[in-house]
């Protein structure tokens, strides 16, 4: 969370806790947890079924408490912002959010444009980007491969990172391996079997975070027969997992139109990491009482509201193409590309981003705002233990 006190020089700052999450009452945390077997590689079919049973139990738990689960969606949450605006007697507000927060803010801007003064988003997720496209993830992976080829230490050890990833996934898919690892609950040594999907899932998740910088080194370790890193990550996915129902409901409600689902299906068959970044989230949507808002969210709009979009060039979760899509809806759009940046921009370049954000949010005329078009985040690849 950025230092919000710096923004109070011009305006009141109101932090909105999305319904069902965080400090909201009630918080839709699911009771109990779920576990996956350690004596076989992770398979999406098994993972999906166990997760589905767990989420259905969570759904029933909250329905028994008379919660209207269909009300947990981004449009209702945009209405929440408007209710807060009215209660504070403000005619116009400035919106600031990142990732799902940007999805939330953009929904408000679409539905209540006359009440928005300006918008600032980082790691932008547009109104139609909830479902991730596999080839966008592959583009980030290929970008990482190019970065490795330019690194003076790693390029001598890794002729092609993209080929190394393909080989390791195929090897583990064909011949899963047993690895000794410490159990996260008991701290006892146990054995886990890891396979290709384990590696796809973990690689995809790290491609969205600042930890992407350690992936080449971890693949080098595996090439040399050391799978301890993968085993530790894998067991953390399989043991004592819990969930909050709110993000499941909101993601399912935002969803995607039929053409994007079809594109995902086609792309996942040829993508190096398959559909690993979406994981099993959307496998449960048909069992939940959520509204299908994809048509409403994807309806066209165009506005003169000023907007600044800050995005990372190496962010698989909200890839650069998201920003290009969002810009089409805004006459006064300004972008800041963080070269080498991930989904964790505030952890990577906060000192560089902070003054830009303050200048924009306190500018008398946001349409005249200017800033560097590119900020560079350090790479700092992990190259040894």
Question: How much beta, percentage-wise?
Answer: 5-15%
* Structural class designation: alpha/beta
**Helicity level, as a percent range?**
40-55%
Estimate the global geometry from the Cα principal axes. Answer: globular
Largest sheet: 5 strands, parallel
**Average pLDDT level:** 96
Structure description:
This protein has 13 helices and 7 strands. By secondary structure, it is of the alpha/beta class. It has a domain at 4-24 and 70-129 and 295-376: Rossmann fold (3-Layer(aba) Sandwich), CATH 3.40.50. A 5-stranded parallel sheet has the order 1-2-5-6-7, sandwiched between helices. It has a two-stranded antiparallel ribbon with strand order 3-4.
């Amino acid at each position: 969370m950025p230092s919000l006190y710096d923004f109070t020089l011009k305006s009141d700052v109101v932090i909105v806790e999305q319904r069902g999450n965080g400090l909201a009452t009630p918080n839709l945390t699911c009771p109990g947890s779920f576990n996956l077997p350690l004596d076989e590689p992770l398979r999406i079919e098994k993972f999906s079924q166990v997760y589905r049973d767990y989420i259905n139990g969570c759904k029933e738990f909250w329905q028994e408490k008379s919660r209207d689960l269909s009300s947990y969606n981004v449009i209702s949450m945009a209405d929440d912002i408007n209710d807060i605006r009215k209660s504070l007697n403000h005619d116009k507000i400035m919106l600031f959010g990142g990732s799902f927060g940007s999805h939330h803010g953009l929904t408000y801007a679409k539905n209540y444009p006359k009440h928005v003064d300006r918008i600032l988003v980082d790691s932008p997720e547009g109104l139609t980007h909830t479902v991730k496209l596999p080839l966008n993830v592959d583009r980030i992976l290929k970008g990482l491969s190019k970065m490795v080829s330019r690194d003076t230490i790693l390029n001598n050890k890794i002729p092609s990172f993209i080929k190394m990833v393909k080989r390791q996934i195929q090897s583990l898919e064909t011949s899963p391996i047993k690895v000794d690892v410490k159990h996260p609950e008991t701290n006892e040594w146990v054995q886990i079997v890891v396979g290709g999907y384990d590696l796809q899932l973990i690689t995809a998740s790290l491609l969205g975070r600042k930890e992407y910088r350690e992936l080449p080194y971890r693949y080098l370790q595996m090439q040399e027969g050391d799978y301890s890193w993968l085993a530790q990550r894998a067991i953390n996915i399989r043991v004592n997992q819990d969930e909050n129902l709110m993000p499941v409901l909101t993601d399912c409600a935002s969803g995607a139109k039929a053409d994007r689902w079809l594109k995902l299906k086609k792309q996942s068959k040829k993508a190096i990491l398959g559909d690993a970044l979406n994981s099993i989230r959307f496998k449960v949507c048909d069992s939940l009482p959520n509204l299908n808002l994809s048509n409403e969210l994807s309806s066209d709009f165009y506005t003169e509201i000023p907007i600044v979009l800050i995005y990372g060039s190496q962010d698989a979760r909200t890839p650069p193409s998201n920003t290009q899509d969002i810009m089409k809806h805004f006459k006064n759009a300004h972008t800041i590309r963080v070269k080498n940046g991930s989904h964790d921009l505030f952890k990577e370049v906060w000192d560089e981003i902070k003054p830009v954000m303050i200048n924009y949010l306190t500018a008398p005329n946001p349409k005249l705002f200017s800033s560097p078009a590119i900020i560079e985040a350090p790479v700092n690849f992990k190259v040894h233990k």
